[in-house]
Design goal:
3 helices; mainly alpha
């Protein structure tokens, strides 16, 4: 099995990689290496992305009802 840091680096260079997948792997790496500031940053990004998706979905649903 490929080490997670190498996998994260490879996927970060791949245009087809999803941001959510990269954030999840980055969080695991930060947690494993005990890099608290980066772990917190990953958490904030996940929350922000989830909030933005929720707001966008709500907006799109409202527009389709018209």
């Amino acid at each position: 099995m490929e080490p997670i840091v190498l996998m994260l680096q490879r996927e970060a260079m791949d245009d087809d990689s999803r941001t959510s997948d990269l954030l999840r792997k980055a969080f695991v790496v930060a947690r494993k290496l005990k890099i608290v500031e980066f772990e917190d940053w990953c958490n904030r990004q996940v929350i922000l992305n989830s909030f933005c998706s929720l707001k966008l979905n709500t907006f799109c649903q409202g527009r389709s009802r018209r």
